[in-house]
Amino acid sequence: MTIFQGLGESIQSVLDVVKAVSVNPYMQSLMTLVAASVTLMVMIN
């Protein structure tokens, strides 16, 4: 497993938990933005 696969799986599992807990559509939008930001940071570095 590469570092990117591990990072992707970790981020996905965290997002799955947050989506299951949060019913608020604003929280889901925020988490999508956070996931996109983390992905962008990884791609830049």
Estimate what percentage of residues fall within beta strands.
under 5%
* Rg for CA atoms: 12 Å
The number of helices is: 2
**Coarse structural class:** mainly alpha
The succession of helices and strands, N to C, reads HH
Round the mean pLDDT to the nearest integer and report it: 79
Distance between the termini: 19 Å
Total domain count: 1
According to DSSP, the number of beta strands is: 0
Globular, elongated, flat, extended or rod-shaped: what is the shape? flat
The biggest sheet, with number of strands, parallel, antiparallel or mixed sense and barrel status, is:
none
Spans of at least 5 consecutive residues with low confidence: none
Describe this structure in words.
The chain has 45 residues and is mainly α. Helix content is 87%, strand content 0%. It is built from 2 helices and no strands. It has helices at 3-21, 25-44. The longest helix has 20 residues, at 25-44. The model has no long low-confidence stretch (mean pLDDT 79).
